């Protein structure tokens, strides 16, 4: 709770289902009011997005060390119409229901559930699919790839957070950015998030999706995630969003001692595997539940 309070200066109740405030004059103050963010997103779909907004996820420069408050997703400056605001209230309601389903399926880490409740998943979908954003399913994002199912996103992060440091994660690496959704969720549970994508148009899609959320602690990289990011390592958490026949050694080598890596492993039959590094030369592996992910592939396209 102390940790949660630090990372979420505003109570969750002020993030979700917030009634539009009577005083909207102070629009430049950054708050995680998703209603306004969502409304700005709805607006941004009908108007070209500005490429000059700060806080986009630039590839390669290290994340700024920011105070907890600035890790919140900032309110975009665009003014929301009343209609947009009420439609975004609907998305908050369905997002809450999605999180309730995820909790019912067994995810109980409050910080993960709060993060899932904060991130507007529909902002990561093509407009044609955004009405399905909150169903518990993986959905296409183009290039034969999918945004992961909400349950598995939450579950993997929960497993990664269940560490000896009471869930504190300094540096986290995600392999397979896709549309950027899981990276956004990770940004609320880790100090620094690095995410690698091997398909250039998806790397760019993720940048565009993350830009309006102005997340300061996510850095996107275009490259082969099987090689990790040796220049940034070690990581105390690594999540693979694509399934290989085994976890690449390079990633094992880039874990801190005490670090946790969560990955789907297998081809047709896949299982979630937790790998913990217990010393310089020793790792333990635990097989968890069945899962289904797109394949992990080498190289870039
Ligand atoms: N994290 C995403 C899921 C994306 S699907 C989400 O939030 O929903 C998995 C992604 O892994 C795909 O975009 C795929 O292109 C990518 N991928 C597969 N192999 C990879 C590799 N070696 N390096 C980086 N990305 C890879």
From TrEMBL:
Alphabetized GO MF terms: protein-L-isoaspartate (D-aspartate) O-methyltransferase activity
Active-site residues (renumbered): 148
Regions of compositional bias (Low complexity) in chain numbering: 48-59
Biased composition (Polar residues): 27-47, 71-90
Highest taxon of the lineage: Bacteria
Gene3D superfamilies per UniProt: Vaccinia Virus protein VP39
Chain's role: Catalyzes the methyl esterification of L-isoaspartyl residues in peptides and proteins that result from spontaneous decomposition of normal L-aspartyl and L-asparaginyl residues. It plays a role in the repair and/or degradation of damaged proteins.
Name listed for the protein in its UniProt record: Protein-L-isoaspartate O-methyltransferase
Gene name for this UniProt entry: pcm
């Amino acid at each position: 709770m102390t940790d949660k309070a630090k990372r979420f200066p505003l109570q969750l109740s002020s993030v979700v289902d917030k009634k539009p405030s009577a005083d909207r004059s102070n629009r430049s103050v950054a708050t995680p009011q998703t209603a306004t963010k969502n409304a700005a997103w709805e607006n941004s779909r009908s108007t070209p997005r500005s490429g000059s907004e700060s806080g986009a996820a630039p590839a390669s420069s290290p994340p700024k060390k920011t105070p907890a408050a600035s890790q919140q997703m900032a309110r975009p400056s665009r003014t929301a119409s009343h209609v947009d605001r009420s439609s975004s209230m609907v998305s908050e309601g369905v997002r809450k229901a999605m999180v309730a389903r995820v909790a019912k399926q067994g995810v109980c880490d409050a910080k993960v559930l709060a993060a899932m409740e904060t991130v507007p998943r529909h902002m990561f979908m093509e407009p044609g699919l955004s009405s399905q954003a909150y169903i518990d399913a993986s959905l296409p994002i183009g290039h034969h790839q999918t945004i992961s199912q909400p349950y598995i996103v939450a579950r993997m992060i929960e497993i990664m957070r269940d560490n000896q440091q009471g869930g504190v994660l300094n540096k986290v690496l995600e392999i397979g950015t896709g549309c950027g959704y899981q990276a956004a969720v990770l940004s609320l549970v880790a100090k620094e998030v690095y995410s690698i994508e091997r398909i250039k148009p998806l790397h760019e899609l993720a940048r565009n999706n993350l830009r309006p959320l102005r997340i300061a602690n996510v850095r996107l990289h275009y490259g082969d995630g099987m090689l990790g990011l040796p220049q940034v390592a070690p990581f105390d958490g690594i999540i693979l969003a694509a399934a290989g026949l085994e976890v690449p050694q390079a990633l094992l080598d880039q874990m801190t001692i005490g670090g946790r890596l969560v990955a789907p492993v297998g081809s047709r039959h896949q299982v979630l595997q937790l790998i913990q590094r217990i010393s310089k030369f020793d790792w333990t592996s635990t097989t968890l539940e069945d899962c289904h992910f797109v394949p992990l592939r080498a190289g870039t396209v």
